[in-house]
Design brief:
By secondary structure, the protein is of the alpha/beta class. The chain has three domains: 93 residues, Beta Barrel (Elongation Factor Tu (Ef-tu), domain 3); 107 residues, Rossmann fold (3-Layer(aba) Sandwich); 40 residues, Dihydroorotate dehydrogenase, electron transfer subunit (Dihydroorotate dehydrogenase B (pyrk subunit), domain 3, Ribbon). Helix content is 18%, strand content 35%. The structure holds flavin-adenine dinucleotide and FE2/S2 (inorganic) cluster (FES).
Length: 251
Amino acid sequence: MPFDTLSEVTAIQQIAEGTFRMILEAPEIAREAMPGQFAMVGFNSPLFDPFLRRPLSFSSAEFGRVEFIVRVVGWGTALLSDLISGEQIPILGPLGTPFPRPEGGAILVGGGVGVAPLLFAGARWKNPILLYGEANSEKLCHMHSVPCEIIIATEDGSTGLSGYVTDGLREQIDKCGGTVFACGPVKMMRRAYEIAAEMGVECYVSLEARMACGVGACMGCVIQTKDGYKRVCKDGPVFDAAQIDWEALDD
Ligand SMILES: Cc1cc2nc3c(=O)[nH]c(=O)nc-3n(C[C@H](O)[C@H](O)[C@H](O)COP(=O)(O)OP(=O)(O)OC[C@H]3O[C@@H](n4cnc5c(N)ncnc54)[C@H](O)[C@@H]3O)c2cc1C
Ligand code: FES
């Protein structure tokens, strides 16, 4: 059952180019939130403008606080990045299906701000490995503590391995086996799935879609899967990658 609360911003700080870490006081939500779930985060605006809240994945939830990593792409995320400590904003959550907890090892593959829910999984699960990729070092999120072993890749080679985040996946599956959990651009998640499938391991992905309600009522976030149409907000955002109709997904 999600909670709809007015939450105080306790901290907001820039952690990469155009990217912010935002911490909110939200005890009920923090108690229930699981890795892979998200919240619909609203605005401190008396005129309800913007009207629609924006979906954001939890990157952490503990000690009565929830944390998000916000990358500015448009109006809503720009307004969130301008918040200051002490302001209050409405938040509805936790929403959606969490990642299934792996029985064996876990390899987390995060592209860009898709790393957010994987940081949460990395902190809650036993000894996962996180592959984290960005276009360049300016975009790399500086995290005060990384909850697990991390392998960084940048497309321009400015930090860590040079190339795509999925380039190192085959080697990690070979070394540790386990289930793959991916979040990021569609092309990246599809590649992670293809590698996992070739190597015979399971893969779960966390999808994004434009959302209006976030609770399964408006059908605005529907995608086509091999099991028919599914709502990303309610049936997902976490899906078994084998069930996705990858050809039908836009990047
Ligand atoms: C389940 C879920 C979890 C998410 N988690 C995070 C997160 O942890 N951190 C984060 O920074 N973002 C996350 N997002 C994406 C975030 O919701 C969008 O970036 C945000 O809603 C954009 O709002 P805006 O007003 O800034 O942009 P708009 O002005 O609405 O749009 C600006 C541009 O961004 C594109 N865009 C808008 N919404 C989305 C979306 N949902 N998916 C892909 N492209 C979009 C638009 O097509 C447009 O090109 C998540 C989305 C979903 C569905
Ligand atoms: S956003 Fe309304 S059904 Fe998913």
